[in-house]
Amino acid sequence: MSTSSHAEPYVPVFVGDTKARLEALATKYPTRQALLLPALWMVQEARGWVSPEGITEVAEQLELTPAYVRGVVSFYTMYHTHPVGRYFIQVCTTSPCNICGAEDVVRALLTHTGCGELGATSPDGKFTVAEAECLGACAFATPVLINDDFIESVTPESVPALLARYT
Amino acid sequence: MGYPHPIHPKETPVLSTHFGDPDARSHAGWVARGGYVALQQALGMTPEAIVDEVKASGLRGRGGAGFPTGMKWSFMPKDDGREHYLCCNADESEPGTFKDREILRWTPHALIEGCAIGCLAIRAETCVIFIRGEYTEPYRILQAAVDEAYAAGTIGANAMGSGKRIEMIVHRGAGAYICGEETALMNAIEGKRGNPRIKPPFPAVAGLFGLPTTINNVETLAAVPAILTRGAAWYAGLSLSSPKSTGTKLISVCGHVQRPGTYEITMGLPMQELIFDLCGGMRPGRTLKAVIPGGSSVPIMTPEEVADCATDYEGIAAKGSLLGSGGMIVMDDTTDMVYQIMRLARFYAHESCAQCTNCREGTAWTTKILERILRGEGKASDLDLLLDLADNMTGKTICVLSDSCATPVVSGIAKFRDEFDAYLSGARAPMTVGV
Ligand SMILES: Cc1cc2nc3c(=O)[nH]c(=O)nc-3n(C[C@H](O)[C@H](O)[C@H](O)COP(=O)(O)O)c2cc1C
Ligand code: SF4
Ligand code: FES
Fold this sequence. Notes:
Shape of chain A: elongated
Largest sheet of chain B: 4 strands, parallel
Largest interface: A-B, 49 and 57 residues
Shape of chain B: globular
Order of helices and strands of chain A: HHHHEHHEEEH
Largest sheet of chain A: 4 strands, mixed
Bound molecules: flavin mononucleotide, iron/sulfur cluster, FE2/S2 (inorganic) cluster
Oligomer: heterodimer
Helix content of chain A: 25-40%
Distance between the termini of chain A: 12 Å
Helix content of chain B: 40-55%
Radius of gyration of chain B: 22 Å
CATH superfamily of the largest domain in chain A: Glutaredoxin
Structural class of chain A: alpha+beta
Distance between the termini of chain B: 36 Å
Strand content of chain B: 5-15%
CATH architecture of the largest domain in chain A: 3-Layer(aba) Sandwich
Number of helices of chain A: 7
Strand order of the largest sheet of chain B: 3-2-1-4
Radius of gyration of chain A: 18 Å
């Protein structure tokens, strides 16, 4: 994953293979609008976040207005509407994990990534830590999602070794 | 099996038999374990015959509401000439619930087979499986299994050479608990904000893309193949207490037990045995304080209520709570009930889709009031205020997310009032809320 900023010229996502993937999906659904969530995932996979230019491109591809697409993007928590660290870390702190010490895991992650506070990106641009609601793995407190990697049973003690895997 | 633990003698493994066995994930592995025999059988049956068999089994929806599955299927129109849809609900986001995840990642073909049979029963040619965005590993495994099932000709334009078409699409969510509500789920698939729709019209009349649709939970659909191969009578006979609760149920148990995991029990197993035998009971030196038996949306139970409770729809209802999704949260004496009820309220406040005033305002204010009680800034009148808010959040909104926020507050104040009073009187030291 890479992050880009407004200063760089926007490089379209839906060209070549990605465009072909989108059109292959289009044959499965009765409307083009139904491709909206998958298309936004493709943008985020390619760019690390869903920028205003990405929203415009998706809108053009699916024959929707940018305002409509923005409205949908803002509903779903997993689409990033601004750049985040190269590794986006989500930690469950909902009650079942909370009673098993999830908040201590968050504190350890904030300390060892150098993020300091929730939602902030570490000075080296590597990490962003966010709290998440129930990740659906409550027997494995505390589950942590790092980009697409789902890691079970994280403890404050296991945090340094876990982070060392992300370079 | 009580994944990740070995099978306990008091379990009844049907759905969970192959949890933990990666070889069961492949198409060939599934066929070697008796897979797709039920689909073959269903391809030779009429839709009515499939529906009747499932009706006779007593199978009820495992997504939370417990609605009889065969009856739900029978609501779909016949000979209406329109396309029909089956939606499989793999959104699994109710705190405490993680049973569908094990089906998705260990036995994806059990689900695909169940979905295919469900399509035949409701005369649908397409099933859309909606899976929560955070389930990255289950998504990869499920998508690979669907691709394999297509490649093998098990599903597709000519499913198992029957001439019947069964298409399957895996659609990823993007973070929103509310998309597990069936009409919000359909909106998410259609490329809209995941707001629940006002009912009626019900999905069987106007559902996905405005067409007749049935929505079923992962565990519900995965239970169907065994019902066809082993027979409705066998399934209906699996019951230890109430004939209205049949079959096996996956119970995902989490919190302060020695062996948290996903257990498969015959309906009606005593809850005491589930917690103390199967899950190994409390950690050393700890005692049971509270159980939320069916996902965070159901009333909290006390140890006294747990002591003689049958784990099935009727048994838990008799104790004033609900079996719900079967996501069981166990709390020991170290638990601060006020803090955890605040944390649950915060969950619902975060997940409210905000289209109903009572839900949007009620969930937010409930959280704020609980936070101020924890910080030692509560007022004597706050508990009455919370109960008044809860009343205004119950039965007054488009969907029941609002009611679900009120539930732990009302049952929490009723059963653990002394803990709230301790914060209000200053007997308990104020807390820092959150990280
Ligand atoms: C707020 C809310 C969230 C829900 N989340 C889920 C869910 O994650 N998974 C699920 O299967 N059902 C969920 N449901 C229930 C579904 O609306 C629906 O009843 C269920 O999927 C039907 O399947 P079943 O009859 O097989 O149980 C939820 C309901 C509500 C109101
Ligand atoms: S009750 Fe809450 S979540 Fe449900 S539709 Fe209304 S605002 Fe949305
Ligand atoms: S509460 Fe943490 S994964 Fe469910």
